[in-house]
Each structure stands twice: as C-alpha cells, then as structure tokens.
Amino acid sequence: MHEASIVTELLRIASDECSKNGYTKIDSIKVIVGRATGVMTDALLFAFNVLKEDTLAKEANLIIEEIPVRGVCKDCGKEFESNENYLIFECPSCGSFSVNIISGKELNITEMEVSQ
Ligand SMILES: [Zn+2]
Questions:
Q1: Per-residue pLDDT reduced to its tens digit, 98-107
Q2: How confident is residue 77, by pLDDT bands cut at 50, 70 and 90?
Q3: Strands 99-103 and 69-73
Q4: What residues does Zn(2+) bind to (predicted)?
Q5: 73 is in an annotated binding site
Q6: How far does residue 29's CA lie from ligand 1's centre (Å)?
Q7: Ligand 1 centre from 39 Cα, in Å?
Q8: Of the candidates 39, 47, 42, which has an alpha carbon nearest to the alpha carbon of residue 11?
Q9: Is 94 among the annotated ligand-binding positions?
Q10: Of 86 and 1, which is predicted with more confidence?
Q11: How far, in Å, from the CA of 71 to the mean position of ligand 1?
Q12: Which residue has the higher pLDDT, 83 or 45?
C-alpha cells in the first residue's frame, strides 16, 4: 500500500525531529497533501493509526489539509484549479490534457506539537 510507505516516512521524520529537540512525545502532526499526489486521505489516516503504535507518535492525531491542484494549460494558457483526486488533468477551457501542474504535489509535515 502506497499510503503505508508514506506514513512510515512521515513518522520517521517526525520522530527524528521530536527526539532531536529533546522531546519524547508527539501530540499532533499536521500534513498538507496535494490532490495531484493521488494519495487517499482515508487510507493515509488508517495507515497512520496502525503504524503510529510503538512510535513517539502513538497518541498523536494526524491532521490532514488537502491542497487543490492548480495547473496551467499548455495549449490555451488558462490557469485552473481542480479539487478532483486525479493524476491526469484536463483543461476546463479547451479540453487539452497537456497541462503543467503548478501546485498540488505537496506532501509535507507543516506543523507538529510535541511534549516532554
Ligand atoms: Zn486549455
């Protein structure tokens, strides 16, 4: 499962940050997930709740903020935004599939709450 390997990586980064700064417990992790990543947030949450056991984040909440996809059409030059969970985007103006994705591929931790 794709989401499980993402969560494993997120937990590794979060745990490293947490212990590097002298804390022992992660209370919450906030991530942004761009819709162009194709990541299913339900699956991400599910994987998090399974994989957080035995880590510093075992009592942590995962807060997911989804970022819409923004793209520019290479044919007509129009910029558009999409909230669909697709990996292939169609220009809403001219129907071209030749688009540049300018945002929506993000997948990062943006905030983390930790305690001693
Ligand atoms: Zn277009």
A1: 999 999 999 9
A2: very high
A3: antiparallel
A4: 73, 76, 91, 94
A5: yes
A6: 37
A7: 25
A8: 47
A9: yes
A10: 86
A11: 10
A12: 45
Rg (CA), the chain: 17
- Report percent pLDDT > 90 for the chain: 87
How many CB atoms are located within 10 Å of the residue 116 CB? 6
Q: Is 102 annotated as a binding residue?
A: no
Q: Which domain holds residue 44?
A: 2-115
Average pLDDT of the chain is 94
Question: Which tokens go with 58?
Answer: 């075992």
Q: What share of the chain is helix, strand, coil (3-state, %, to 5)?
A: 30, 35, 35
Distance CA 113, CA 21 (A): 12
pLDDT of residue 1: 54
| CA 33 to ligand 1 centroid distance, Å | 25
For the cut 80, the answer to whether the pLDDT of residue 28 exceeds it is yes
User: Which CATH number characterizes residue 31's domain?
Assistant: 3.30.2320.80
Residue pair 33/107 in contact (Cβ under 8 Å)? The answer is yes
Q: How many domains does the chain have?
A: 1
